[in-house]
Structure formats: C-alpha cells, structure tokens
Design a protein that fits this description.
By secondary structure, the chain is mainly β. It has one domain: Outer membrane protein transport protein (OMPP1/FadL/TodX) (Porin). It contains six helices and 23 strands. The strands form three sheets. A 14-stranded antiparallel barrel has the order 1-2-3-9-10-11-12-16-17-19-20-21-22-23. A hairpin with a 3-residue loop joins β9 and β10. The longest helix is centred in the middle third of the chain and has 13 residues. The protein starts with 24 loop residues before the first helix and ends with a strand.
Length: 533
C-alpha cells in the first residue's frame, strides 16, 4: 500500500481527519452502509420484502422468494434522484448553505426463468423453481455540500482563543528531527511533494526555524493572521455501488421455499474537495489559500447469501436470510494541491520571519498516489414476516442486523507499490468508532382490480458508537403505484430519504477545530416496466 495525503476528512463522518494517511474507517463505512434498492415494487414498500416472495428484489434480500414465482419475468428500472444538502459550521448559523445534486441512474434490471410442475404431477415434493439474473443499485454516492463562515474569538475555560488559533494553519506543527526537516527541504527544492506538510512548506504557508541543536529543537512555524478567519468548503461526490446477482429459489410442497444467491459487486467513487481560508485583515501578506484534494476509486467484490421462506398458513409467511461478508478490492488515485494568494502590500505578524511568498496566485501539487487495498464488509442477517389479506393486498416487515465494527481493511498483495502495511491502526479505529445496529423496514400493498397502491418506511440505525441519540441514522419514506394488465406490468415508486452527518475538516491539538454539520435529503423516483411469460 502506498501512503497518501489527506487534507480533509475522506467522508462526511464524525471523527478525526487531518494530514494523516492510508485508507481509514470512513472508507470502510462508505462501502458497508447500503440503501434500499431494487425495482419500483420493492422500493414502494420500503424494501420490506424478505418474506413477501415472487419479487425481483428478493434476489438481493432473500433468494428463497424466487421459488414463489409462477411465471418468468423480464423488467427494467430507470430512476432519477434529486439531492439537497444544508451544511454549516456548528454555532455559526449565518454560514449555512444549501446545495443540490441530481443524477439519472439505472436502479434495477433482470430476468427470471421459472419452471413449474403441473398440479397433477405428484412425482416429487419439489413443485418448481426459478433462476434469476439481475442488476441492482445498492448505494448512491452522488452528493454535494458547501458551507462558509468566520472563525472568531472563543472563550474556552475562561481563556480567549483567537480565530487564527482555530485555523487550518494551526494544525501544521510537524515532527521534530533532523530527517523530517531535511525531507521537507528536499520536497521544496525538487518540487516533488509527497506529504501535506511538504505541500504547505512549498506553498510558503510554513517554514523551518532551526534551533541550536541539529534539528532536535527545530520547529515548523506557520503564518499568523489577525482577527476572524474566513473559512469555506465545497465537497462534491459522484458514483455508485451496484451488484450483479445470480440466484435460484425452489418450492418444496408450496410450503417451504429455499434459495441461494451469488453477487458480484462493482463500485466507482469520486470526490472533489476544496477548503479555503481567507483573511479579513487586508494588511496581512497572506490573503487566502485553498486546499484541494481529488479521489477516484474503483472496486469490485463478491458475496453469497442463503434464504428461506415458510408459509405458516395460507396468509402468513415467515422469512429469513443471511449474507456472507463482501470481499472487495479497490484501486485508487489521490491527488492534492494548495493554491495561495499573497499581497505585495501586506506584512506578516510572526516572531520569526518567514520567506516572502510570491505575490499573486501560486499553486503547488503533490505527486499522484496510485495504490490498491482490500476491504471485507460485514455479515448481514435478515428476518421478515408478511401477512396476505386475501386478494386485497399484504403487509410486511423486516429486521436486518449489521455490525459495522466488523469491517476490515487489508493490504493488497498484488499492489506493485505494496509495503506489507498491516492496517492494524485503521482496523482498531473501525472497531472503536462503529457498532452493530438494527435496520427496520415496513411496507404494505393494496390491490384494486388491476391497480396497486404501496407505502413503506425504513429506519436504518446509526453505525456510530458515540451517537447515543441515534441522530445519524437513515430514514426512507416510500410510496408507489402499479398496474398489472395481462402479461404487462408497470410500477412507479418515490423514495424520500434523510441522513444527518457530522465531521471535522482537520484536527488541532487544542481540539478547537470547527465541527461541520450536514443535513442531507434525497428524493428519488423510479419506474419499472416489465413483462411476464
């Protein structure tokens, strides 16, 4: 694994982020935390289909439901998502900003081949089965957020802390030692920047002040500013995670249904982050600086699942399924840069002089980092119940168990830049930060001749250990309509989701870094068209 620079937090999550390195807990959570998906029928009932059966969404939730199909089926589901984020610095309501991000996508598509013995054929108790091949979108990474505000003086334990002691530059302190300082100078002289501190040094945001001894009491000195510091950040993410599934479900005496499935995942994720600090005092030499990082990650993996549904009575069905951990491999490219703006009229206010920055706008960029790593996401278990109300419809409910603290990062043995990095620190952080949780889903479908009306709700619990109030769970409010006419069907669904996130753009020794809160909402519409044969 090749080390990478991280200017800002890699995902909008609570916890520490700064100029650290390596894949972290936020990466593990991103690919472990799924959303409800599938055709419009599944979406309309809030994804509560573990015990429903004869629904294409069973391919990813409970393949035993495939055994309840009476006819073969072909369908396709496009969708459109409208996302909105309100972000702001905690305690600074005036800096909150609203951002939107839209996307078109394919939510689901697939084919079911059904075989069924005639009712008069009593040669075996296995009455039929269905093989399914399909595609399902599991997670949507499309989002955008933006905030801005002032870092002003704060009173902490009776002591006034100025805005400049809360800024990003206050985090640039470095590590003592002759080798460390020689490395910074080498990066600056060659222009080959490989660390966050090296970039800051090359951009004239910091300098090395030598002590009497050879490097032992040297220090990194950053530029000091007066009064409030303007701060803003824009974050844009794109991409998705999808799964291609093969599954088979069989019916035993039309009472017990069993199924097995195998999934092949593919993921693409891209994030662009720009963090800016500006001066309110025009007499300072440094006017502003912008940190920009860009991350492009692609990955693939696989998992397997088993399931069963038991028809306790003609109306009552009980379902259960388990999914193995998902084993994934990722390739990533990470780039980072700093752009500074120095004024010819301004002066520095610091006890030790720093080199004069070049007047105007200057950019320095780190060498790109290309590397690979592996991730194992948690085991999942589902239980469900469905009750059919004659020909009027049904109601259903699901419970899902996931332990996000069980995710594990590993070195990729085939990475050409590999250094046998153990990921022990990152994996301990995952265990300390995340916990097990329960996801709940409920739904109902009403049948009115050829028409269908659906409603649902899902609550996905918070994965964070410290989130005792469960404020960072996910909510999904769903509804849908459908029509069945002969061998043709069409379904429409709408999903409104909410997710609250908290993160810090950097960390400080005095723990006075700003805390950013983001309230995300997303409205997604999906349309499924299909035929039976």
């Amino acid at each position: 694994m090749k080390k990478r620079i991280i200017w800002l937090s890699l995902a909008l999550v609570a916890g520490q982020a700064g100029h650290g390195f390596a894949q972290g807990a936020s990466d593990a959570l991103r690919y472990s935390r799924l959303q409800i998906g599938g055709p419009a029928r599944s979406l309309g009932i809030g994804g509560a289909n573990v015990a429903v059966g004869a629904d294409f969404g069973n391919l990813t939730s409970n393949p035993a439901g495939l055994g309840m199909y009476q006819k073969s089926e072909l369908h396709f589901t496009p969708g459109f998502g409208l996302g909105q984020s309100d972000a702001g610095i905690e305690g600074n309501a005036s800096g909150a900003q609203n951002t939107t991000k839209n996307s078109f996508h394919v939510g689901s598509g697939g084919l079911v081949f059904t075989t069924r013995r005639p009712d008069g054929d009593q040669s075996t108790n296995w009455r039929g089965g269905a093989f399914a091949l399909g595609f399902t979108r599991l997670a949507d990474f499309n989002a955008a957020s933006r905030y801005g505000g002032l870092l002003t003086d704060r009173s902490v334990n009776g002591r006034t802390v100025s805005g400049d002691n809360q800024s990003y530059l206050a985090s640039l302190r470095g590590t003592a030692g002759q080798g460390y300082f020689d490395d910074l100078r080498e990066q600056g002289n060659s222009g080959n920047y490989t660390s966050a501190d090296g970039l800051a040094y090359g951009a004239y945001l910091t300098s090395i002040v030598r002590g009497r001894r050879s490097g032992a009491d040297s220090a990194i000195v950053s530029r000091v500013r007066r009064g409030p510091i303007g701060q803003s950040e824009a974050v844009t993410t794109r991409g998705s995670m999808s799964q291609l599934d093969l599954g088979y479900g069989a019916s035993y005496r039309d009472r017990l249904y069993v199924g097995v499935g195998f999934g092949i995942l593919s993921s693409n994720y891209r994030s662009v982050r720009e963090f800016t600090e500006t001066e309110n005092d025009p007499t300072t030499h440094l006017t502003s600086f912008t940190l920009r990082d860009e991350n492009f990650t692609t990955g693939n993996g696989f998992n397997a699942r088993l399931g069963l549904i038991y028809r306790a009575t003609d109306a009552l069905r009980l379902g259960a399924s388990v999914q193995s951990p998902t084993f994934m491999k990722f390739s990533e490219r990470f780039t980072s840069s700093i752009t500074t703006d120095f004024s010819a009229q301004g002066t520095d206010i610091v006890a030790v002089s720093l080199p004069t920055g070049p007047v105007g706008i200057t950019s320095v960029e780190a060498l790109p980092n290309d590397y690979a790593y592996r991730l194992t996401t948690p085991f999942r278990a589902n239980g469900g119940v469905a009750y059919t109300i004659g020909k009027l419809g049904f109601i259903s409910g699901d419970v899902e168990y996931v332990d996000y603290g069980q995710a594990r990062l590993n070195n990729d043995d085939q990475d050409a830049n590999g250094d046998n990095y153990s990921f022990s620190v990152e994996n301990e952080d995952i265990k300390a930060r995340y916990k097990n949780t329960v996801n709940l889903r409920v739904g109902a479908e009403g049948r009115f001749d050829v028409f269908r009306v659906r409603v649902g709700y899902a609550r996905y619990g918070t994965p964070y250990v410290e989130d005792n109030s469960n404020e960072r769970g996910q909510n999904f409010y769903t509804g849908g309509l459908g029509i069945r006419q002969g061998n043709f069907f069409i379904d429409a669904a709408a999903v409104y989701s909410t997710l609250n996130q908290v993160y810090t753009p950097y960390t400080l020794a005095n723990e006075l870094q700003p805390v950013i809160k983001v309230n995300n909402t997303r409205f997604t519409t999906s349309l499924t068209a299909g035929i039976t044969f």
